[in-house]
Design a protein that fits this description.
This protein has 17 helices and five strands. With 347 residues, it is mostly helical. It has one domain.
Length: 347
């Protein structure tokens, strides 16, 4: 057995042994109402202030609108993380408070709260499970599935996994357009369906009123750049958290929740400023071990778990760029590989 495989087996066995222990330890890092309110106010207030300035600048100073869209997009990502925590009932101790704030933030993130909450719970319950793919994850084919596919299916998958398509085009289209329509899972669940339809109605009324007051071009010219940039950043974060060479996938019978959480979720180590804007979500292995920990306490959990050092995969911003060449799970070698390794003449 080669050294890298031995290291992987050691990490896997350590994750299985330590996972339950750390999960119980992290449950003590619950929500702090004052910190939650402070984070919400200090994120939402500058975000709304930036939108106001951008709206003013859009008439004659559109370059300034685009410039301010960058920090505004960062704040919107942070607001999405707060909505995400509300979906896990981790941002406040009160479930009602979580749901109230989560639904309110959906007007800014354009993401139907109850539907997303249900889908994301399925993601946590099945991440890394090859037999339960398709809910809240990035579509990933195995090498065998890809090789057995038709030429048209292969082409479609290769286009989908291209970062220009997945991030630059796919992410904005998903957040702005596709989330306005219920998918097959939402059609089968009444609450999820209501979540989509009620948000669509609220967005129609809200943006309709703003367009009436300030003009459609002003409203769209202000919010679309922010939403597009935020979707790019959010898509990148979500991709890197589970799509890396040493990721972990198993068939249902061999799948283990704690193993998938630690070994199948990365520690995306970002510069402090980007970690702040992304609400510490890069500490994804900690989050998957205990989703009831609010984002502002993930760093404390990591500090309290030195055992995780050397087990979870650490990915830097530069290293994240290399993750995009990976697209297929090789069950024989137990790692993600690129198209070049499967079809070298076509890559």
């Amino acid at each position: 057995m080669n050294a890298s495989r031995q290291t992987g087996d050691h990490a896997t066995s350590s994750a299985v042994a330590l996972g339950p222990i750390l999960s119980r330890r992290f449950t003590t890092y619950g929500a702090d109402t004052r910190r939650s309110i402070f984070q919400l106010v200090t994120t939402a207030t500058p975000f709304l202030a930036l939108l106001a300035v951008m709206g003013w600048a859009s008439n004659g100073y559109f370059w300034l609108t685009l410039l301010l869209a960058i920090p505004a997009a960062g704040l919107l990502v942070r607001l999405f993380i707060i909505q995400h925590d509300c979906g896990h009932s981790s941002f406040f101790r009160s479930r009602a408070a979580n749901d109230l704030v989560g639904r309110a933030l959906s007007l800014l993130t354009l993401t139907p709260y109850d539907s997303w909450k249900r889908s994301h719970a399925a993601h946590h319950a099945s991440t890394g499970n090859l037999d339960r793919r398709g809910r809240g994850d990035v579509e990933t084919m195995t090498v065998a599935e890809y090789q057995a596919s038709s030429p048209l299916r292969k082409l479609a998958y290769r286009l989908f996994r291209n970062p220009l398509v997945m991030v630059m085009l796919g992410a904005p289209i998903n957040f702005i357009l596709l989330q306005r329509f219920p998918n097959s899972h939402e059609l089968r669940n009444r609450r999820s369906l209501q979540s989509v339809l009620l948000l669509d109605l609220a967005l129609l009324l809200g943006f309709g009123l703003l367009s009436y007051l300030f003009g459609t071009l002003t409203v769209l010219g202000t919010y679309l750049p922010v939403m597009i940039m935020a979707s790019w950043a959010g898509n990148w974060l979500f991709y890197v958290q589970h799509q890396f060479e040493d990721a972990h996938w198993e068939r249902d019978g061999d799948w283990n929740f704690h193993e998938a959480a630690v070994v199948g979720s990365s520690y995306f180590k970002l510069p402090p400023v980007l970690q702040w804007f992304s609400g510490n979500i890069g500490l994804h292995h900690v989050h998957h071990l205990c989703s009831r920990v609010p984002n502002y306490r993930l760093q404390a959990c990591l500090a309290a778990a030195p055992e995780l050092a050397g087990i979870a995969k650490v990915i830097t911003l530069r290293e994240s760029l290399r993750c995009w060449r990976l697209a297929l799970w090789d069950e024989q070698r137990g790692r993600l590989v690129g198209f070049r390794e499967v079809e070298p003449r076509l890559a």
